[in-house]
Design brief:
Blueprint: H1 2-18, E1 28-32, E2 35-39, E3 44-53, E4 58-69, E5 72-83, E6 90-97, E7 106-118, E8 122-135
Parallel strand pairs: 2-8
Antiparallel strand pairs: 1-3, 2-3, 3-6, 4-5, 4-7, 7-8
Length: about 140
């Protein structure tokens, strides 16, 4: 039994040293504002986000808004294929259009996902979820 344990530990140590150095953590963050602005009588909502990704990387952002409107769900999402990656925080306003029914003033649940790629082979996904107040 001890021989098997020693073998497993040795194999794990060899595997750990074989991992590429590029597996280092990429700097990235995404934050949703506590409030978003309704547009076009609730057909859309402008969601303020702050993104940060490491200089030299490329980033994309996905935002989804879901709200209970009188027992039915108003749902919309938006994919932004490119966000600035300079190592600093940048404000990115994402306009989400409802696919079902109009959004209304009040609380909605919002999710943001920032996908960052750093050549040659490193990537990271960071997320932020929160309740958000939709206002006119």
């Amino acid at each position: 039994m001890r021989a098997i344990s020693a073998f497993v530990l040795t194999a794990a140590a060899i595997l750990a040293t074989a991992l590429p150095a590029s597996a280092a953590q990429i700097e990235a963050a995404v934050a949703l504002a506590p409030q978003a602005r309704l547009e076009a009588r609730g057909v859309a909502v402008v969601v303020p986000t702050r993104v940060m990704c490491q200089n030299g990387a490329t980033g994309s952002l996905w935002v989804q808004v879901t709200q209970n409107v009188r027992g039915d769900l108003a749902i919309g999402d938006k994919y932004t294929s490119s966000v600035p990656c300079t190592g600093d925080y940048h404000k990115v306003d994402v306009t989400v259009v409802s696919r079902t029914k109009a959004f209304r003033q009040g609380i909605a649940f919002t999710s943001a996902s920032l996908n960052v790629y750093l050549p040659p082979d490193s990537s990271r996904i960071v997320e932020n979820d929160r309740e958000m107040m939709l206002v006119r």
